[in-house]
C-alpha cells in the first residue's frame, strides 16, 4: 500500500468534524477582507494539530507550517471569502446572513463560490498529514487567503510580508470546487484560467434640460455608441478563434426623463488568455472610447479606472506532469483534462511572487447522476447551478471527500515516503 493511500484511509474518521466545520463556515460566510471569524477557527484548528501558525497576513490571511524532516517544501492554498449573494437553496445549513460591504451597504452574504469547501478540504489535508507524519517528510505549508473574489487577497498576503514568514516553497498547489461530478478532478498544463480586468469608465458630457438637447452633450447617446463599438473588438479586431471577452456589465446615467445628465459611468469586464491579447483589448477599448468622446465633443476626456484585476493562471508543465500522474493513479479515468476556464483566479500571484512553480486544478461537487442526466439533455447550464449562483449547492459529504482526496494526493506526490 502506498503511503498516500494510508493517509487517504484516514478521511473516513474525520467525516463528522469535516461536515460540522463546513456547515459552520457555510452558515457564517464573510466578505472579502472581513474573514476574521473564519481565520480564527482555522488558526485554532491548526494550532491544535501542532502547526506553527502565523496570523494577520494581508491582513486577514494566515499560514500554518509543519516541518517534518528533510525534503520538499509544499505550499497549498485555500481562499476564504464569500460573496454578496442571497442564498436561495433550501439546505438546512443555508446562510441567512446579511452584512455591511466595503461601501457600508447592507448585503446578503453567501459562500456561493465554494471557498468554505476549499478551507475544509485544506484543513482536512493538514490534519491527515499531521496524523501521519511517518508517511511523509519535508515541510507542509497550508495557506488560507483572503479576498480572492476581489482579486487582491493573494497580493495583499505578499505585501504583508509572506516571503519573510514562510520557507520558500518548492511548489505551490491550489484547487477550486466547480459543478463537475463529485468523483472528478480536472487539471491542465499551461494557461488554465483567464486574465481579467474590470474597468470603470466615466464619460463627461454637459448636462442640460431634456427639451433642449442642443444645449448639452448627451453622455447617454455617447455611451450607447460606445457599447455598440466595444462589441466589435472581439469580432472585428482579433483573429478569429482568439479567446477574448469584452462585457459591459453596467451602464448608469441620469435620474429623470427630462434631464440630460452631465456624466455616465460604464463598468467593463475583459478576459484574455495571453498578456498580448489583454494589452490589445485595453488599447482598443481606450482608443474607441477616447475617439467617441472626441466625436461627441465632450468638454473633457473620459476617465479610466482599472480594478478587480486577476493574473493569467498559467500552470507549470512539470508540476502538471507530476501531479496529474498521481491523479491518474488515484482517480483513474475520473482524472480529466480541464477545459480552459473563462473564469479567473488570483492564486498564481503567490507562487509567481515567491518564484515557485505551481498547479491549480478543479474538483467536482455535483451528484454524478444529476450531472449525467443534465448533460444528456444538453441542459448543464440550466439544471446545474454554477458558482456565484444563489442556488449553488455542492453535495456536502462527497464533495469534501473529493477535494480532500485531490489535495492529499497532490501534496503527497511531493512529500510521500
Ligand atoms: Zn468566485
Ligand atoms: Zn472562487
Written overview of the protein:
There is one protein chain. This protein has 417 residues and is α+β, with helices and mostly antiparallel strands. It has 13 helices and 18 strands. The chain has an eight-stranded mixed sheet with strand order 1-2-6-3-7-18-8-17, with helices on both faces. A four-stranded antiparallel sheet has the order 12-14-10-15, covered by helices on one side. Strands 4-5 form a two-stranded antiparallel ribbon. Helix 4 (115-131) crosses helix 13 (396-415) and helix 7 (219-237) runs antiparallel to helix 8. The protein is elongated, with a radius of gyration of 23 Å. The N and C termini lie close together (12 Å). The site of one zinc ion (ZN) has 4 residues, from loops. This is Hippurate hydrolase.
The beta-strand count equals 18
Order of strands across the main sheet: 1-2-6-3-7-18-8-17
CATH topology of the largest domain: Aminopeptidase
CATH class of the largest domain: Alpha Beta
Q: How much helical structure, as a percent, in the residues?
A: 25-40%
> Which ligands are bound?
zinc ion
Binding site for Mn(2+): 113, 115, 149, 176
GO molecular function, one term: hydrolase activity
Pfam family, one: Peptidase_M20
Keywords: Hydrolase, Manganese, Metal-binding
Structure, briefly:
The chain has 417 residues and is of the alpha+beta class.
